[in-house]
Specification:
Elements: H1 10-21, E1 35-37, E2 40-46, E3 52-58, E4 67-73, E5 78-84, E6 92-97
Antiparallel strand pairs: 1-2, 2-5, 3-4, 3-6
Length: about 100
């Protein structure tokens, strides 16, 4: 039970409910500094151990859909994926936390 001195908005109530009913906080992956070795670009991002992440890309931001490079399951607080840049010299990436 909790008592507030002011009325809570619907969003605040939803956030409180979500926090109280979910043991794992859902956080968006955050890219860490990228590294490169020859044509291999290493993507590094924050992760939740046990959760799956899908690495997606576009070669042009005007494309309507994203291509999938791989799906990985985290065993630690970070994940890394080596992408061979031989075929496409320009790529835009995103990492999606899977349900």
């Amino acid at each position: 039970m909790a008592i507030w001195t002011n009325a809570l908005s619907a969003v605040q109530i939803q956030q409180l409910y979500f926090t109280a009913t979910n043991s794992v906080i859902q956080t968006a992956p955050v890219f860490q500094p990228l590294t490169r070795s020859g044509n291999i670009l290493f993507l590094n991002w924050s992760a939740i151990s046990g959760r799956s992440y899908q690495v997606q890309y576009k070669t042009n931001l005007t494309q309507s859909s994203w291509g999938t490079l791989t799906t990985l399951t985290a065993t630690d607080a970070t994940l890394s994926f080596p992408d061979d840049m031989t075929t496409d010299r320009q790529r835009f990436y995103r990492v999606v936390l899977m349900p």
